[in-house]
Design goal:
The chain has 660 residues and is α/β, with parallel strands linked by helices. The protein has four domains: 199 residues, P-loop containing nucleotide triphosphate hydrolases (Rossmann fold), CATH 3.40.50.300; 132 residues, P-loop containing nucleotide triphosphate hydrolases (Rossmann fold, 3-Layer(aba) Sandwich); 106 residues, Winged helix-like DNA-binding domain superfamily/Winged helix DNA-binding domain (Arc Repressor Mutant, subunit A), CATH 1.10.10; 72 residues, DNA polymerase, domain 1. 43% of the residues lie in helices and 12% in strands. Bound molecules: adenosine-5'-diphosphate (ADP) and zinc ion.
């Protein structure tokens, strides 16, 4: 349909032909086409797309279509080799220059660039700003500058890289070369900062939908996070690759050990490990099937492994931006994936404490508090989680809900918690007014429940008039109520011991001028999919792997056979398996069972080069399966009920931890 897309005919056909021929994809996604058209025509662009949205094609195709080399600035030198390998597997002439290379290797890339033999050249920002590099670039022909992870220029973000500030010189030095800046960080403030600091005043802004419909968002009350995590992994993601985020190095180490001890292969990743160990663990994650990385936020940026099936948080992230970026690393291939988080009272207390006792001025604290409040609102909402996330990024959610988050699948009940809130607040007031004391949440809950613990007796708290007035609710419900009051700003945390104090708005609750609506705590803290409680009919129930979830049982052995073939290819070539083919491609192959090389070429993700390299190999695997009749002999795993496992008892005390 020439011209229908708004592209000039020639450019349209060239961009689209490149998409088909090189990448083997049928059609552009969302904003890709508009971005590519604009950049191919020589315009500057700022592209905001969620993680996994398809940013790479936005600069790779212009680099292939325009004459010269596309120069990609990326902060992640550890990943450049893999990125270049993946492009070379597609037949794209790609190279990189960074500090991991020796002199000769670098010389060779330089020569290729000068000879016009590179389609794409990846550089770290600290290398780009060197005079020697700038001189080199001046002597070759550049088609486009792509600035990846452009939010690294923002001083407010946790990914700030001072070297990014120097990138504004690109526009001054190469005014005729289009520049495209890309990021998954979406707030308007970051937007403006990028435009200004990179010197992109006339760049057109492309804002893609931030929805990632294949990711299921779930947030469960935290009881014993390691055990809950284990149940979640065993029931829904056995054998899958995924990332578990913890806030402290200590809990990263302990969680990785715990998973390994329980038969799930997991490796730690945090800033306290030496560079060699970190690189080795990252490399294993990219290369092996089904490895779990337990990490602090130091892990993950720029990792484009497409088949990460879950991202789990065992601690509350500090902001929605961070949470969305981290969870976005799941399911880049578009297949069903899960973003799972366990969140509890102690998270709120710790995070509030951290902000108050941390470094930074008042403005910094206010910002951090606003970020945390938005995160808490997401955790405590009784509405669609996806809706809340999209609204946060300024986008219109579906008013009917998404149907693929825990609150949509199992709408939480709410209850009038006004009296409960009054009881909690009065206890805080009594302690302070009558005794001049402040205590943490645990003591308040013990007093309400009328528990004569050692600490209650020591302080004579059984003599308070509020002692035992909360026996109508259980401990979990009280903890939940305290957590929600903290989230709603009706109660606050103070000092190093996390003592509870009133806020300006507490009075309105005590005076009964304000109603407090609370979410009901589930009877059992669920580590498993809330939507699966209806039995074994839920997606994924009865199947170990989410990837295979929508493949019929007869096709599973064929899928596994292709994966085994792929693993062998990957091992031989020393590249990650997804560089050969994505899971999504293997899935389409077994579903369509192509009979010829030509037919195989119409499968998504099978471009010209891959067809030439692997076409015969894939068909041979299929032929062998035909012969052995293996496809018919499938025996799916017995179905497991989502509720079958015994649930951990709630932990008595929140665990103190070393925070980083
Ligand atoms: P981002 O950099 O925005 O996180 P990527 O560029 O890594 O995302 O793309 C995410 C995934 O989507 C990749 O596996 C990529 O191959 C795939 N993809 C991107 N564009 C298309 C398309 N038009 N059709 C099919 N798959 C696509
Ligand atoms: Zn929803």
């Amino acid at each position: 349909m020439p011209g229908a897309t708004g592209l000039p005919d020639a450019a349209e056909s060239e961009a689209l032909a490149t998409l088909h021929r090189v990448f083997g994809y049928e059609a552009f996604r969302g904003e890709q086409q508009a971005v590519i058209e604009h950049v191919v025509a020589g315009g500057d662009a700022l592209v905001l797309m969620p993680t996994g949205g398809g940013k790479s094609l936005c600069y790779q195709i212009p680099a292939l279509v325009r004459p010269g080399t596309g120069v990609v600035v990326s902060p992640l030198i550890a990943l450049m080799q893999d990125q270049v390998d993946a492009l070379r597997a597609l037949g794209v002439r790609a190279g990189f220059m960074n500090s991991t290379q020796d002199f000769d290797e670098r010389r060779m890339v330089e020569a290729e660039f000068l000879a016009g033999e590179l389609d794409l050249l990846y550089l770290a920002p600290e290398r780009l700003r060197l005079d020697a590099t700038l001189d080199l670039l001046s002597r070759g022909k550049i088609s486009v500058f792509a600035i990846d992870e452009a939010h690294c220029v923002s001083q407010w973000g946790h990914d700030f890289r001072p070297d990014y500030l120097a990138l504004s010189l690109l526009g001054e030095r190469w005014p005729d070369v289009p520049r495209i800046a890309l990021t998954a960080t979406a707030t308007r403030a970051t937007h403006e900062e990028i435009t200004q600091r990179l010197g992109l005043p006339s760049a057109r802004h492309f804002v893609a939908s931030f929805d990632r419909p294949n990711i299921q968002y779930r947030i469960v009350p935290k009881a014993d996070p390691k055990k809950q995590l284990l149940s979640f992994l065993r029931e829904e993601h056995a054998g899958d690759a995924g990332i578990v985020y913890c806030l402290s190095r200590n809990s990263v180490e302990r969680t990785a050990e715990f998973l390994t001890a329980n038969g799930i292969e997991a490796v730690p990743y945090h800033a306290g490990l030496d560079a060699g160990t970190r690189a080795a663990h990252q490399s294993r994650f990219l290369r092996e099937d089904g490895l779990v990385v337990v990490a602090t936020i130091a892990f993950g940026m720029g990792i484009d492994k497409p088949d990460v099936r879950f991202v789990a948080h065992t601690d509350l992230p500090k902001s929605i931006e961070g949470y969305y970026q981290e969870t976005g690393r799941a399911g880049r291939d578009g297949l069903p994936s899960t973003a799972w988080m366990a969140y509890g009272l102690n998270d709120v207390i710790q995070q509030r404490k951290l902000i108050q006792s941390g470094e930074g001025d008042e403005a910094f604290r206010r910002r951090a508090t606003a970020h945390l409040d938005a995160m808490l609102a997401l955790c405590e909402t009784a509405q669609c989680r996806r809706g809340q996330l999209l609204a946060y990024f300024g986008q219109e959610p579906d008013p009917a809900g998404c149907g693929n988050c825990d609150t949509c699948l199992t709408p939480p009940e709410t209850w009038d918690g006004t009296v409960a809130a009054q009881k909690i607040l009065s206890t805080v007031v009594r302690l302070q007014r009558e005794r001049g004391q402040k205590f943490g949440a645990l003591q308040i809950v013990d007093i309400l429940l009328g528990k004569r613990t050692a600490k209650v007796i020591q302080f004579d708290h059984d003599q308070l008039s509020v002692f035992g007035i909360g026996s109508d609710l259980g401990e979990g419900e009280w903890r939940g109520a305290v957590r929600q009051l903290l989230a709603q700003g009706l109660l606050a945390v103070e000092g190093d011991y996390g003592t509870l104090v009133l806020t300006e708005t507490s009075g309105s609750v005590l005076r009964a001028e304000r109603e407090v609506l609370l979410r009901k705590e589930p009877k059992k803290p669920s580590g498993s999919r809330s939507g699966g409680s209806s039995g074994s009919s839920g997606r994924g129930a009865g199947k170990a792997r989410a990837v295979a979830a929508e493949l019929s049982a007869e096709l599973l052995p064929a899928f596994e056979a292709l994966r085994a073939w792929r693993a062998e290819q990957a091992r031989e070539q020393g590249v990650p398996a997804y560089v050969i083919f994505h899971d999504a491609t293997l899935r389409e192959i077994v579903t369509r069972w192509p009979a010829s090389v030509r037919e195989l070429g119409t499968v998504g993700g099978v471009g010209e080069k891959k067809l030439a390299t692997y076409g015969e190999g894939v068909l041979a695997v299929l032929a062998a399966l035909n012969e052995s009749g293996a496809a018919a002999g499938a025996s799916p795993e017995p179905a497991r009920s989502a509720e079958a496992d015994d649930w951990p008892e709630p932990a008595d005390e929140p665990e103190p931890d070393d925070w980083i």
